Amino acid sequence: MKVLSLVSIMGLMMLTAASPSAAEENSFYVTPYIGYSFSESVTDENGTKVRIKNDPHVALALETDMDQGRVGLFLSHQPSEVKGIQGDGSLTYVHFQSAMRYQSSPRVDALFGLSLGTTLSQVDWIDEDLLFSAGVFTGAEYKLSHNMRLVFEARWLASRVDGQSKSSCQLQSSGENCQIRLDSEWLSQWQTNLGLTFSF
To answer: Which of 16, 59, 81, 142 is the most buried (most CB within 10 A)?
Structure first.
């Protein structure tokens, strides 16, 4: 319910940015992505580093033009499995984003942007279900046709967590109980994304 409310608020922000008076000047962009996520390690109760498996993910961006860039909504969903620990989970990012664009050649645009929003955590080793998160991204866009573009992006995403908390877990090898703690108050992930943008 909280996530749906957040999506509604961000959707309203997008509609405000693309007001009827500017509708003729603005274009709308839909970009589905596939990508790969790289995650930092967590630590078990013995101080041993436990690696979060790097996994593929899917994402979607909904954007509209504003000034020299674009604003919109970014959604990303990925599995999150810790090596050697029982139980699977996922992390879902829901971000409002803004990006500046620079034409480096007639067919290629470079981009740099920031994003802000929340992370829906469905993993046992994080106590909170909703986390504040932010991101930075850069990339390039190649124009295939008037309304289709190929996009490559690299993103850094950071979620705010309680670095002092410990979460219970079970070892895959023996089924014994264990505890996982985070080393810092930010959980970082890095994404590489390949997408296809359709404009309307």
So the answer is: 59
> Per-residue pLDDT averaged across 68-92, rounded?
84
CB atoms within 10 A of CB 65: 19
Would you state the pLDDT for residue 5? 47
User: Hey, what are 91's tokens?
Assistant: 């992390």
Task: Classify residue 46 by its DSSP letter.
Answer: T
- pLDDT tier for residue 185 given thresholds of 50, 70 and 90: confident
Q: Which domain holds residue 14?
A: 2-18+26-199
pLDDT over 90 (residue 195)? yes
Q: How many domains does the chain have?
A: 1
- Residue 16 parent element (H or E): helix 2-17
Write the CATH number for 195: 2.40.160.20
What is the C-alpha separation between 191 and 200, in angstroms, rounded? Answer: 27
> Does position 50 have pLDDT exceeding 80, yes or no?
no
Q: What single string gives the DSSP state of each residue in 112-180?
A: EEEEEEEEEEE-TT-S-SEEEEEEEEEEEEEEEETTEEEEEEEEEEEEE--TT-EEEEEBTTT--EEEE
Backbone angles phi, psi at 113, to 5 degrees: -150, 170
Burial zone of 141 (CB within 10 Å; 0-12 exposed, 13-18 middle, 19+ buried): buried
Spell out a b/e string for 25-51, using b for 16 or more CB atoms within 10 Å of the CB, else e.
eeebbebebebebebbebebeeeeebe
Would you state the pLDDT for residue 98? 96
